[in-house]
Amino acid sequence: MGKIATWTRRGFIAAGGLVGGGLALGIAFAPNRLGIKGDDKALNTWVKITPDNRVTVLVPHCDMGQGSQTGLAMMLAEELDADWSLVGVQEAPALPAYANEYLVRGMLLGAAPPLILGRAVDDAVLGLTALMGLQITGGSASIRFTGELGMRTAGAAARAMLIQAAAARWGVSAGSCSAAQSMVRHAPSGRMLTFGAVAEDAALLPPPAAPALKPFAAWRIVGTSPPRFDVAAKVDGSARYAIDVVLPGMLYAAVAAAPVFGGKLLSVDSAAVEKMPGVHSVVRLDNAVAVLAAGYWQAQTALRALEPKFDDGGHGHVSSTEIDTAQSALLAKGAGSTDVKRGDAAAALAAAAHVVTADYAVPYLAHATLEPPNAVVHIVGDKCEIWTGVQDPLNARATAARAAGLPRENVTLHNCMVGGGFGRKIPDVMDFIEQAAKLGRAAAPRPVKLIWSREEDITHDYYRTAARARFQGGLNAHGQPVVWRADYTGEAGEQAAHLPYQIDNQLITGQKYANHVRTGAWRSVDHSQHGFFSESFVDELAAAAGKDAFQFRRDLLQAGSRQRAVLEMAAEKSGWGASLQAGCGRGIALTESFGSIVAEVAEVAVAPSGAVQVRRVTAVVDCGDLVHPDAATAQIEGGIMFGLAAALYGEITIENGAVTQRNFDTYRVARMVDAPAIAVYFIASHAPRGGIGEVGVPGIAPAIANAIHAACGVRMRKLPLRSVAMAAGPAPDQHASAL
Amino acid sequence: MAYDLAVNGQTHHVDADPATPLLWILREQLGLPGTKFGCGAGLCGACTVHLDGVATRSCQVPLGTVGTQQITTIEGLGTPAARHPVQKAWIDIQVPQCGYCQSGMIMAVAALLAHTAAPTDDQINTEITNICRCGTYPRVRRAIHALAQAGEATSHG
Questions:
Q1: Most B-contacting residue of A245, A672, A673, A692 (CB-CB within 10 A), to test interface
Q2: What do you get for the CA distance between the two ends of chain A, in Å?
């Protein structure tokens, strides 16, 4: 029978036996009880220890290559005192009903009938999972929340139970036993038992309510960099993404949605296309048309032969120029809703010895995950199975159920490896799942695989918003900043707009701007624009004060602060101040996001033609204690490349209400030739763990823009930076620091 | 139209429209999904395979033009039991992140190293034009240089 313990007010630990012997232990808790927004979120963690002494960790997060599945298993194994070579990982099926069924039938009981385990575990732990409306991988949260709260506690609880079981077998006190390398040891007698040997006994014990966690000094797995679990399959073509799923009798679908968001399908003449080879049918959706065919190329070819007529939802007049004008007009109206207010900004500006003003702008950006949106849907009767790769399988399942007109519990979702997320595959932006479910209905009882073309992806994303900001800064007679005034387009309260610097008078306001263009979260969310805005303007203040960009920032940070330590190390590691060739410059930026502090120094060369080449980037990161330093390094490298691509090239524009860019020829991203030498350093501060997946992004655009200014005196205030010549017009003026 | 394709050392009989891109023949008819669809326009390189040893974007190769060329896909480059040196280096340096581009990236690098054992950074930049949205480029470069060094050590040893 299963046992359960209340573990703090926010969660439960439950344990039970496995068929064939062994221990299964689970943690369930609801972040809403921790004050995290959203009332239907919960996370859970499971581990099983089988008689063969193997440890399997069930991770409730998808792996997009960020390494958090490996990292989370390491956190659990650390507290468990497991032998790492015996640890494996499985992604949890993140569906309330499916999770219940899977956990009870599949994981705990093999093929045996359910509920042998006992109602207590089912109701209390698995019942809690039924509260889950969301199970998301995003917000750089996996390690910080699931790891800190779930994995470590689960590992520690299992360890305590295994020790207690071994002690009982030997008739000694648990206190005289210890665990290491998946063995329990009784030092006085020299006796040892494997975890697997006592797992079945341990399953009969009540779980501890408050298992003790290891101190930092005792860690031996966390902080090392074993090979990630997901890598090997990614080098030989055996890794399986949703796009690779094949079912018997499967049809392939290509889709074209209304080019203007909000537009509807008016008409389409499909008679000729329906006769094309391999074509199964033409399906009309409310705002799109799709072709189902025997192969994807046939579907895509037939789709291109269609001439669907869409309306523009009344948005056909919208252009990027109009958006730019509207956003500028908003800022010209003056202050929006107050975000930060400190001191008296107006009085301080009036009294300042020197006032600096500047406007900045960033464009819409697409995610352009290399695996285009896709899903396989199979509807038979009132049951639906779906294969896809998303950052939130539960939301995807709910979306599919709604679109297919089925109750959620009739929908089974298999989450596959995710070929790039970056925010495109999170809740409420799952239009491709909705389409796939509707096409699944049309194809039923045959399965159908919907694959978006790259053109469909670039023109139907949920974009990082276009935004503008207007700054006023005041210096006193000593060149010290005394006031910081910022107005931005965007919902007030974007924490990303807040400053790490000590400036007495601050007024930061936001003005909401919205139109028909779909926007969504893009790796690092608001930080992606605010990092550029704020860290560019700090640089302008430093220039106006005639001070070194690093020293100016340093003087505004509290002595002994983590921020100052990060900034100083970045200056040291980048060789800040050392001379460079003519036409080259260094720029620095300090950003704080998702609980981590990052300083980046970019070294750029600006050619006489105006072409910008980023040669070297030095990043220093304080994200608290590292779990897997190599995976963390890779995430910072990747974040820098993602931000660099956007800084230099990324731009989505709107004409006649629709997106202009179509594929990688017009929506340019970074390639090998753009990749600078990147050096990443970490400061192990033992501060609470911060995120890692997104935090490398915000600082790179301002670091590059600041470096361009250092290299040639031109201040770039609009992204993408592309080329200095295009932005600056005539020959760069060495003293063109724009005040 | 019926064709005999030489893929990974075996002959496969396929019957399809000669205009069908090789990519979709490999993925949908021959059960070789390691070669990926990324852009359909020869821009991203996710679909890179070898045709007679030359790195080629299979989304731009109509079936009717393949003829007797030897096709090698990621599945034929090496196996878990006998990995190609590039695949080994990719594991050693933990290059992949999401992994979706890596089949194409590995095929492109394997072809580059086959004709240029120790490429310079400029040669790498010119020859490896595959897109990786996760930004694994620094590690790809590191892995290529590591392979070049190991190759040199072998030839001198």
A1: A672
A2: 74
Residue B72 contacts A, CB cutoff 8 Å: no
State the DSSP code for A244: G
Is B8 in the A-facing interface, judged by CB distances under 8 Å?
A: no
Name which of A66, A232, A235 is nearest B106 (Cβ-Cβ). Answer: A235
- The domains of chain B, with CATH numbers, are 2-77 (3.10.20.30), 85-156 (1.10.150.120)
Residue among B47, B60, B97 with most chain A CBs within 10 A, to mutate = B97
Cα–Cα distance, A599 to A554 (Å, whole number): 12
Residue of chain A whose Cα is closest to the Cα of B88: A235
Identify the DSSP state of A125.
I
Compute the distance between CA of residue A125 and CA of residue B80 in angstroms, rounded to an integer.
39
Mean pLDDT by 10 residues, chain A (739 residues): 50 70 71 38 66 87 79 93 94 45 31 26 32 41 63 90 97 97 97 96 86 91 95 96 97 98 98 97 98 98 98 97 96 90 98 98 98 98 93 84 93 89 88 98 98 98 97 97 96 85 96 94 95 98 98 98 98 97 97 95 95 97 94 97 98 98 98 98 89 95 98 96 65 37
Chain B residue with Cα closest to A246 = B28
Q: Do B125 and A673 touch (CB under 8 A)?
A: yes
Tell me the helix, strand and coil percentages in chain A, rounded to 5: 35, 25, 40
Q: Which of B59, B65, B57, B79 is closest to B9 using CA atoms?
A: B79
Show the domains of chain A with their CATH numbers: 3-228 (3.30.365.10), 242-312+373-451 (3.30.365.10), 321-364+463-728 (3.30.365.10)
CA distance A562 to A599: 11
